[in-house]
Design goal:
Blueprint: E1 3-7, H1 12-23, E2 27-31, H2 38-51, E3 57-60, E4 71-74, H3 88-101, E5 105-110, E6 120-121, H4 132-148, E7 154-159, E8 161-163, H5 172-182, E9 197-199, H6 200-211, E10 220-224, H7 230-237, E11 249-250, E12 255-257, H8 264-277
Parallel strand pairs: 1-2, 1-4, 2-3, 4-5, 5-7, 6-11, 7-10, 8-9, 10-12
Length: 283
């Protein structure tokens, strides 16, 4: 891979992908979606400052400005987003570019396409989302399937919960860290995805591995830590009362195992140190 187009490089997954590619000497055309929330816009601008001067990075304002890319990552809606960022026109523009230039298209989707009552997930299980985020991701998936048809050029990657530096500020782990550092009460949303969780760097590494397997024989894959009970462990690390750990069972033929580079405890320590060093962003 010499160059990638990342639609949504200001998002959690998009920024981590962008940073990783630039570190590896791979060029990036980055498109940043607009943010209505002032705090989100401030965070996005901080990210832009970090990578904007890299000679391998080009900030594009339109998908038509993207040139000579080897893969497209569509990351506008993060796997555990609290906002509905659905932009079908942008999605179609990216898909059209992929089809015209015959380059792989990877849609970052979410485990939330399956509702909390769906406990057994097989290859042919019909998603019934119970959250707005899940509904937005399912709409994206449906649009991409219609645009690409039977092509082996696209891949839908469903990702569970994610944590690590730059985790969205609404997340339980981030809010708990802020609470510990500042004494402010956590404002975490109770509807957060809790069935599985991955460290952001591990998820990004796996996405790049998947991109290298094009053409794609199967259109959908689920990233999995292959571990159970992680949410209860997270809650206990913050000295909270652990609730029953929610879970679902994925059939083996749809799983892409993710190798964990750090333990949950170590990963949260890394995130805590990062938040401590960058606390000004959230104040």
């Amino acid at each position: 891979m010499r160059k990638a187009l990342i639609a949504g490089f200001g998002q959690f997954v998009g920024f981590a992908l962008c940073s990783r590619l630039l570190e590896e000497g791979i060029g990036v055309d980055g498109y940043m979606n607009k943010y209505q929330d002032d705090q989100e816009q401030k965070i996005a601008e901080e990210k832009m400052m970090l990578i904007g001067r890299n000679a391998l990075f080009e900030n594009i304002s339109s998908i038509t400005e993207a040139k000579e890319n080897d893969v497209i990552f569509y990351c506008i809606q993060d796997p555990t987003d609290q906002e509905n960022r659905l932009d079908l026109n942008l999605l179609r523009d990216c898909a059209d570019l992929s089809i015209k230039q015959k380059i792989p298209f990877i849609l970052i989707s979410s485990a939330e396409v399956f509702g909390e009552m769906q406990k057994e997930i097989e290859k042919d299980t019909v998603p019934v989302p119970s959250t707005e985020n899940g509904k937005a991701h399912l709409k994206q998936e449906s649009e991409i399937r219609e645009l690409f048809g039977e092509s082996e050029q696209f891949k839908i990657v469903r990702i569970p919960g994610l944590y690590g530096p730059w985790q969205p500020q609404s997340s339980f782990i981030h809010q708990s860290i802020i609470s510990e550092l500042t004494g402010k009460k956590s404002a975490a949303d109770a509807n957060e995805e809790k069935r599985d969780i991955l460290y952001i760097d591990d998820a990004v590494r796996t996405l790049l591995d998947i991109a290298a397997t094009s053409p794609f024989k199967e259109p959908v894959v689920h990233l999995s830590s292959m571990k159970e009970g992680q949410w209860s462990e997270i809650v206990e690390l913050f000295s909270e009362k652990a609730e029953r750990n929610p879970s679902y069972k994925l059939s083996k033929d749809i799983i892409h195992p993710v190798k964990n580079s750090v333990s949950l405890e170590r990963g949260i320590q890394i995130q805590t140190e990062w938040v401590k060093q960058n606390l000004y962003i959230y104040q």
